[in-house]
Amino acid sequence: MQTTINTLQKGQKAVILSFDDAIIPLKLIEMGCMEGNFVEVIQIAPLGDPIFLSVNDTNLAIRKEMASRIFVEIQK
Amino acid sequence: MLLEKKWQAGFLWKYKSKMTKNDTLKIALVGNPNTGKTSLFNSLTGLRQQVGNYPGITVEKKQGSFHLENHQKVTVIDLPGTYSLNPSSIDESVTTEYLLNKEDKNFPQVAVIVAEAENLKRNLLLFTQVKDLGIPTILVINMADRMQLKGISINKENLEKQLDTKIIFTSTRNNTGISELKNCIQNFEKLAEKPLFSNDISTYKNWLSDTYKIGFVEVEDKQKQIAVKKEQHQETVKRYQFINSVLKGNFEKDKSKATDFDSRLDKILTHKVFGYIIFLVLLMLMFQAIFSWSGPFMDFIDENFALLAETVATFLPEGKINELISQGIIPGIGGIVIFVPQIAMLFLFISILEESGYMSRVVFLMDKIMRKFGLNGKSVVPLISGNACAIPAVMATRNIEDWKERLITILVTPFSVCSARLPVYTILISLIVPEQKIFGFINSQALALLGMYVFGIVLALLSSIILTKIIKAKSKSYFVIEMPSYKMPLLRNVFYTVFEKTKSFVIDAGKIILAVSVVLWFLASHGGETFDNAEKIVSSQLENENLPEAELTAKIASFQIENSYIGTMGKAIEPIIKPLGYDWKIGIAIITSFAAREVFVGTLATIYSVENADDEGTIKSRMQTATFTNGEKVFTTPTGISLLFFYAIAMQCGATVAIVKRETNSWKWALLQLFGLGIMAYLAALVAYQVLN
After folding, report:
1. Which of B431, B532, B560, B627 has the highest count of CB atoms within 10 angstroms of its CB?
2. Which residues, at least 6 apart from B683, have a Cβ–Cβ distance to it below 8 Å?
3. A9: DSSP letter
4. Does residue B60 sit in helix, strand or coil?
5. What's the distance, Cα to Cα, between the start and end of chain A in Å?
6. Do B233 and A29 touch (CB under 8 A)?
7. ipTM surpassing 0.85, yes or no?
8. Is residue B30 part of a domain?
């Protein structure tokens, strides 16, 4: 199923499909957030934002707003 | 505090004199943040290191040295941590610029890339970039002791072949692999200089020189900017494809083992209730430590300085030199050394929080809350480290990507109770809050100090709300933060940080205080004609009262100080500060503390000790007994609270003004902050005194 990262539940895994180059900063790509990589939601902050992700063996946190711009395919 | 600047100037001088020597081998440590790069630096160089700044910008520059087995001297430069050579901030650009400038006298003969086993893939991105610049490169895989725990296995021989490099496993925790690394450095001429991913060195170099500024410099040509960004994206993706093919079969990670411990810890530490409770408890513990645990050490230092002054006064021959040392220099220095226990304790806590990886969790927990105030989760780090010193704190705002959130953080950071305020608060609280145990274990003075910290936070947050409404700035709101795995803080690293920071506080603050106290002593013990004839004037005025000898001497002394140069200056400003409940001596102390807040205590110590040269009291006891000319006590509760308010708000720190100017790139914000806070401080102190009195 296709969706964006912000809709994932804690513990859910997905594969990154695409994102808008102009909005997503280079830093995120350098940390391994790119097409074809697995992403897992590790923790969601107490007030629902930011989201704590594991991508490409790296643990990082991004805000919901940016997460909503990264399209993923949920893994069963 | 002007210290950082002086520190920097001193360093540059030392640094230049070092550069003329060409017989040393130069190596650079390059790596991602959180890879233990600094631990490796400490392991290699021990305490033979200098901390300074890069010219023009305020990134910390660390340089040290050690000797190889063949007695060759090696100079090590610890470059700022970065994820790639395509920097997204001016800080990260330091590494790129340094590695691009082959003409520089300090250009490294060897680059040591410090990677971490857990994030090897990501670390290799930077490795392939440095390799493509044609610099002989060694790959250090640090934290090798954790590999088994994390279920990681690496085929070293194959990887060395594919990456065309030497790989060394190290563990700075157990000190393994260090001598192997030194060996490898000694044989650096055997290292390959061929590019790895790019076809040739000069093409990559030229492309990097043309494009690396795009991430942090405003470009007119938006079309070009977008095109370059796209190129950088594609280049990064291609490098990762290459890295993936290299790692295939040579790097395995057993996922089930990998995240077990960390995720369990994260479940508690980032929990929606416990997470905040733990954070609060840690903060409380920090303040308890600063105030209570350091108490006995401080008393010890205070008493010994009083004793020292007394001894010197007795043993040195009487005269001006004796007075200068026993009344000027010793009380002035004592006024600063006494705060070493508190400052060391504070840096101890902050460095443990940073080292363990916990600080990132605080950022994660606090982001949404801080955003409500117009700040950023990352603002928590400057606001907490602002409790040590506002200068590094203002610099720490650099990793806040959003300009408006960053500017507001810079503007409110000086509300954090910096270590220079601590001396002032400590002495004022001890004068106006009686020492008691609340519920049998909470120290009442510690609680009052905690109150001052809370006051600082409340002021910072309220100001942020107001500033968010006022400041109009374009915003590129994005937020990316790495959540490093938890690590037991390395005792050695913590020790180095505490030692380094405390040393620079004592030496740099000490210099200012020494200068200020000598000047003050001179101004307080010299004066015009009235001063010189004090004895005659006072004696003739009181001729008929038949006062006992001691009382007459005291009258003469206080008449003298009032008519000294400093007394005359103080009297001139007294009308402005009188409504706040201050006498002219406090006025002088406030003026001198624009050099650095902690000078307040030293100034009063010097003035009182010139005035009561025969009474060898501690600073506190002298302040306790100080009186106005009409005999009323100076440090009453209203005056004390008024002073606390003044010091909580006023921007009494020349160095912070300079740093804010540099970081915001305009005098506008620096001056706005200086005068805005000054006026606020005056009004708050005025209201406090008038209401309470």
Report:
1. B560
2. none
3. P
4. strand
5. 9
6. yes
7. yes
8. yes
| B473 vs B400: CA distance, rounded Å | 15
For the segment B360-388, what is each residue's pLDDT rounded down to a tens digit? 899 999 999 998 998 888 898 888 878 87
Of B229, B271, B479, the CB nearest to A62: B479
Q: Residue A69 belongs to what domain range?
A: 2-74
Do B240 and A58 make contact, defined as CB atoms within 8 angstroms?
no
Is A32–B484 a contact, with Cβ atoms under 8 angstroms apart?
no
Looking at the structure of chain A, the number of domains it has is 1
Number of structural domains in chain B: 1
Inter-chain CB proximity B119 and A60 less than 8 Å: no
Domain hosting residue B101, numbered range:
3-258
CA-based nearest distance A13→chain B, Å: 14
Give the C-alpha distances (Å, rounded to integers) separating B55 from B15, B61, B498.
11, 9, 25
Shortest CA gap A56–chain B (Å): 8
- Residue in chain A closest to B226 (alpha carbons) equals A22
Q: What is the pLDDT of residues B453-501, one digit of tens each?
A: 889 999 999 999 999 888 876 655 678 888 888 888 888 888 888 887 7
pLDDT tens, residue by residue, B241-287: 999 999 988 888 876 665 677 878 888 898 888 999 999 898 888 87
Residue B196, in any domain of the structure: yes
Q: Does the pTM of the predicted model rise above 0.80?
A: no
Q: What are phi and psi of B20, to 5 degrees?
A: -70, -25
Inside any domain, residue B182: yes
Do the domain assignments include residue B179?
A: yes
Q: State the CATH number of the domain containing residue B211.
A: 3.40.50.300
Residue A31's domain is classified under what CATH number?
2.30.30.90
